[in-house]
Task: structure prediction
Amino acid sequence: MELLVEAAGWGGALLILSAYLLLSMEKVTGQSRLYQGMNVVGAAGFVVNGGWHGAIPSASLNVIWMLIGAAALVRIVRRRRTEGVSG
Result:
């Protein structure tokens, strides 16, 4: 179990850092489903890892990070569906 928790944490870190790298290199935008999805899944990995290790501030921060990303994803998907219907 410990190995899975550590893999979740390192995987989360890799996803969030990769998302930031892609954004910084202008390969994605903040309105990209890929960017927001990477942040949501990455934050989930940090939540698992932080919760397991009792790092409540870190886990809490990442729950909020995950919710922000999920809300952004919902907005992006709704906007694209609306544009697809009207366009």
About this structure: The chain has one domain: 2-86.
